[in-house]
């Protein structure tokens, strides 16, 4: 099977930094990503301007950026990626976890407790 590069919006999403402030509302931290605009980082106030767009909520869990399975699974195939439980929500890590336990991620050699191929979206793509 030939390598298929990830879509542009996904490449930009994987570089998302939750520490950056909104360019419109400087008191807000950007934690939404607009898939339709392919590069728009949004705070909760700006997200209202993109109400008809496909957006993803990004937040920190266990010190790393995650997305909700219910949201991201609409846009990419998340099979073989470890799904974590975060206060009742199912989430997937954006980047390599680097957290040793039992089995290894095929891409980054990070370990985890489940025999699933990848620890994050970045490792899968």
TrEMBL record:
Organism: Zostera marina
Protein name as catalogued: PLATZ transcription factor family protein
A Pfam match: PLATZ
PANTHER family: OS11G0428700 PROTEIN (PTHR31065:SF56), PLATZ TRANSCRIPTION FACTOR FAMILY PROTEIN (PTHR31065)
């Amino acid at each position: 099977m030939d390598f298929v590069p990830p879509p542009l919006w996904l490449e930009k999403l994987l570089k998302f930094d939750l520490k950056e402030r909104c360019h419109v509302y400087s008191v807000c931290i950007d934690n939404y990503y607009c898939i339709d605009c392919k590069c728009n980082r949004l705070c909760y106030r700006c997200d209202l301007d993109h109400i008809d767009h496909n957006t993803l909520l990004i937040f920190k869990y266990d010190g790393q950026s995650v997305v909700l399975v219910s949201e991201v699974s609409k846009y990419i195939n998340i099979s073989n990626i470890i799904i974590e439980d975060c206060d009742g929500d199912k989430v997937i890590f954006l980047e390599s976890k680097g957290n040793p336990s039992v089995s290894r991620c095929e891409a980054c050699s990070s370990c985890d407790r489940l025999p699933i191929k990848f620890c994050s979206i970045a490792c899968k793509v």
